[in-house]
From TrEMBL:
<dbReference type="InterPro" id="IPR002060">
    <property type="entry name" value="Squ/phyt_synthse"/>
</dbReference>
<protein>
    <submittedName>
        <fullName>Squalene/phytoene synthase</fullName>
    </submittedName>
</protein>
<feature type="region of interest" description="Disordered">
    <location>
        <begin position="1"/>
        <end position="22"/>
    </location>
</feature>
<dbReference type="InterPro" id="IPR044843">
    <property type="entry name" value="Trans_IPPS_bact-type"/>
</dbReference>
<dbReference type="InterPro" id="IPR033904">
    <property type="entry name" value="Trans_IPPS_HH"/>
</dbReference>
<dbReference type="InterPro" id="IPR019845">
    <property type="entry name" value="Squalene/phytoene_synthase_CS"/>
</dbReference>
<dbReference type="GO" id="GO:0051996">
    <property type="term" value="F:squalene synthase [NAD(P)H] activity"/>
</dbReference>
<dbReference type="InterPro" id="IPR008949">
    <property type="entry name" value="Isoprenoid_synthase_dom_sf"/>
</dbReference>
<comment type="pathway">
    <text>Carotenoid biosynthesis; phytoene biosynthesis.</text>
</comment>
<dbReference type="GO" id="GO:0016117">
    <property type="term" value="P:carotenoid biosynthetic process"/>
</dbReference>
<keyword id="KW-0808">Transferase</keyword>
<dbReference type="GO" id="GO:0004311">
    <property type="term" value="F:geranylgeranyl diphosphate synthase activity"/>
</dbReference>
<dbReference type="Pfam" id="PF00494">
    <property type="entry name" value="SQS_PSY"/>
</dbReference>
């Protein structure tokens, strides 16, 4: 499936360095050791290192954008990233066979929050952790997820910042849509899919990045965070059209838009075949028109979060804006490759990323009052 946008992939190539060297000082007293993590052999420090290593390896631009956060916020972002990447990779590697593992992950999340609610945030012993006390409800049992090396960091981050259960369950539901995938029929279905797999990440990150928890009660603000995820997912789909159909036989562009522009699935498959010659393929004008229509839709969803920038913690504003602008720049990278999102992976150059970051830093006071 296409990689989930907001946290999961930035399309960058190259070596990403040694994560351990960047995360030596991650542990602070603000986090409580989750003794119910089922990972007794992994210390909290080691768990955060594992989470940061995953983010640094899999999402270079995102890692670079958010590493400027205060230590506690940065490592919580990394832990949430590890959760989302794990869910995404389950389906990428297993398809429909990953559904039981997604059930396991959901069971782990539900049990974590049930435990926190029932014990008033007190930590239980390992023996009764993740126990489902409500026999009347059929809920997935948690067996595997809590043994993963990043899980203690994830649990500590959820408790430290009050991350909302809703966003995590939305993420899992979005992954189920991919595991049991069918071609997307309408633009509305595309938006709903993007809301689940990427808008959910915006909801999850809110408590980590805001000034205070009052933000979660502001419906306009929460919608803006969700829409930023939707925008990034659509950009992600526009970048990976060829890879999705060639490697996974999946088309995320809505069928109604394909039909309106006279484009068939067979045409997309033909364009997506590996280009063994040095000659660049010619992209039909009809596809360019369709691509730009979806890019315009994505750009509309990129806008609302900027109106709420003051709701984010001062330290989070530049990283957030940077991550959004770097991802939105992928659209121009596709244009620069003459819309060949079929046989090549379009990504922003280091020079472009540096220019975007510099521009944001220069105008932060004028535009966002950072």
């Amino acid at each position: 499936m296409t990689r989930k946008a907001t946290l999961l992939s930035d399309g960058q190539d190259g070596s990403h360095g040694n994560a351990a060297s960047d995360t030596k000082k991650l542990v602070t007293p603000a986090f409580s050791e989750p003794h119910d993590s089922h990972s007794p052999s992994v210390s909290l420090e080691q768990s955060f290192k594992a989470a940061c290593s995953i983010m640094q390896t899999e999402a270079v631009s995102f890692y670079q954008a958010f590493r400027g956060l205060p230590e506690d916020r940065f490592k919580a972002v990394a832990a949430v990233y590890a959760f989302c990447r794990y869910a995404d990779d389950l389906v990428d590697e297993g398809g429909s066979a990953a559904l039981p593992q997604l059930d396991d992950l959901e069971g782990s999340v539900r049990s974590l929050f049930e435990q926190t609610r029932s014990r008033d945030t007190r930590i239980s012993t390992a023996d009764d952790a993740f126990h489902d006390n409500d026999s009347r409800q059929q809920k997935p049992k948690a067996t595997m997820a809590p043994t993963l090396p990043w899980w203690p960091a994830f649990v500590a981050s959820i408790r430290r910042f009050g991350v909302q259960e809703q966003g995590l369950l939305m993420q899992i539901q979005g992954q189920r849509m991919d595991a049991d995938f069918h071609d997307i029929e309408t633009t509305a279905e595309l938006i709903e899919y993007s809301r689940l797999v990427a808008g959910s990440v915006g909801i999850v990150l809110v408590p980590i990045l805001v000034n205070d928890m009052n933000g979660i009660h502001d419906l306009g603000f929460m919608q803006a965070c969700e829409e930023l995820g939707i925008a990034m997912q659509i950009t992600n789909i526009l970048r990976d059209v060829g890879e999705d159909i060639r490697k996974r036989n999946r088309v995320y562009i809505p069928h109604d838009l394909l039909e309106a522009h006279g484009i068939t699935r067979n045409l997309l498959s033909s364009l997506a075949q590996e280009n063994v010659s040095t000659q660049r393929i010619v992209i039909p004008e009809a596809f360019v028109s369709l691509w730009e229509r979806l890019a315009t839709l994505a750009d509309r969803y990129y806008l609302p979060y900027e109106r709420h920038i003051d709701s984010f913690h001062k330290s989070a504003r530049v990283p957030l804006i940077t991550a959004a602008k770097l991802y939105q720049a992928i659209e121009q990278a596709v244009r620069d490759q003459s819309y060949d999102c079929f046989t090549r992976r379009c990504y922003t150059s280091k020079a472009t990323r540096l220019r975007i970051v510099t521009q944001i830093q220069l105008r932060e006071k004028a535009l966002w009052k950072i």
